[in-house]
Amino acid sequence: MTPEYLLTSMIVILLPGTGVLYTLAYGLSKGWRASVLAAFGCTLGIVPSIAASVVGLAALLHTSALAFQIIKYLGVAYLFYMAWGTLRSGGALQISEQHATVSSTKIIINGFLLNILNPKLTIFFLAFLPQFVPSNTANPTTYMLWLALIFMALTFIVFVVYGSFASATRHYVISKPAIMLWLRRGFAGAFGLLGMKLAIAHQ
């Protein structure tokens, strides 16, 4: 593992995306524990992309327009669903003092689906990981898995930090109804924009 790999990974992870938005939303709406669960779910969502990349299945998404489009539009639909759920009165991401019950399993599964339904993530790993495998490595597959695990660990840590910051400001946000309303609209709009961006993205 090189400093360049760590730096590149941190840049990719720190860039706001669906996982960051999802973790922030739960940090604000349900508190620190929920944000950690959201971060864990999003981190787990990286596993299928890593597995596909390591065994070469990502090449199918890269070469098959149909396979790419199917996965892509499933992801688009799910992002729009998240946008609708964020706006919906009483939705899981509604910010309030009342601790509406949301199961840990549901938080994790939704975070998992947000990442697993992103074909760009799989293609990213296909192009990203091999660049950091030394040519003289005896077992490239094992080395790639090690790099991937480091990426996942960094993702979880960064997302937990994001969620912790959000949960720390939760009580202030809750005391300001106007901020609550615009935050909910903002998260819904962000999910919707990401969905549209994915929809118009080329393979």
Amount of beta strand: under 5%
* Main pleated sheet: none
Radius of gyration, in angstroms, nearest whole number: 18 Å
Count all strands and give the number. 0
> Structural class, judged by helices and strands?
mainly alpha
Can you describe what's shown?
This protein has 203 residues and is mainly α. The chain has one domain. 78% of the residues lie in helices and 0% in strands. The chain contains eleven helices and no strands. Helix 2 runs parallel beside helix 9 and helix 3 packs antiparallel against helix 9. The longest helix is centred in the C-terminal third of the chain and has 29 residues. The radius of gyration is 18 Å and the shape is globular. The mean pLDDT is 75.
Provide a short characterization of the protein structure:
This protein is an all-alpha fold.
Question: Which helices and strands appear, and what pairs or packs with what?
Answer:
Blueprint (H helix, E strand, L loop, with lengths): L2 H12 L3 H13 L1 H13 L1 H10 L2 H6 L1 H23 L16 H13 L2 H10 L11 H29 L1 H5 L2 H24 L3
